[in-house]
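Lecture notes, part 5. Sequence design as translation. It can be helpful to think of inverse folding as translation between two languages: the language of shapes and the language of residues. The source text, in structure tokens, appears below.
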């Protein structure tokens, strides 16, 4: 009889052990899922609100060819600053296009002489814009198409930018606190 009791006790301990291990595995999976969700949400390259506002799959080629269709609309583009000008209260950034990947990270276009290798202008109030932007090697930008042209290139009014520095210490984010801001038009820019 004592042999039967021992087996029953071992079976009960084994059953308890299996339940405890299952609980530990489930807890570990839940912890990993929550951690990944929080880290991915916190590290998003572009806030969800801007992704929803932006015209989907906009390219520089589409923006250049169909200017009127995009006037006043929000677009998401990538780029690298090649020139800057100050005009009154505004800072004008001449940006060479860097197409965005699925994570909204800018990269050099596959064809560096094709239409996606073109450039555009971004305008922002210089008092609001951080000086750190000069350390950004690449940028992911959300901007409203102004309908203006500068040297036959489209002009965006900047709403949001994520700067990618050479090192992570130089990364930065800027957001326009007044999304309805429309810059004044300097004489060197023609309106469509």
């Amino acid at each position: 009889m004592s042999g039967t009791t021992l087996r029953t006790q071992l079976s009960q301990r084994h059953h308890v052990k299996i339940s405890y291990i299952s609980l530990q595995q489930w807890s570990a999976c839940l912890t990993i899922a929550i951690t990944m969700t929080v880290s991915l949400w916190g590290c998003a390259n572009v806030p969800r609100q801007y992704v929803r506002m932006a015209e989907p799959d906009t390219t520089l080629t589409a923006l250049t060819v169909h200017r009127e269709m995009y006037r006043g609309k929000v677009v998401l583009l990538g780029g690298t600053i090649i020139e800057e000008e100050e005009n009154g209260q505004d800072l004008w950034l001449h940006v060479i296009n860097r197409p965005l990947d699925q994570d909204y990270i800018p990269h050099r276009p596959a064809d560096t002489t094709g239409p996606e290798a073109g450039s555009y202008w971004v305008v922002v109030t210089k008092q609001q814009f951080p000086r750190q932007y000069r350390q950004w090697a690449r940028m992911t930008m959300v901007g409203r198409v102004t309908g203006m042209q500068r040297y036959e290139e489209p002009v965006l009014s900047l709403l949001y930018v994520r700067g990618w520095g050479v090192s992570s210490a130089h990364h930065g984010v800027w957001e326009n606190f007044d999304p309805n801001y429309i810059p004044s038009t300097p004489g060197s820019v023609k309106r469509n």
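The translated text above is only one of many valid answers, since several sequences can fold into similar shapes. The chain is about 30% helix and 35% strand.
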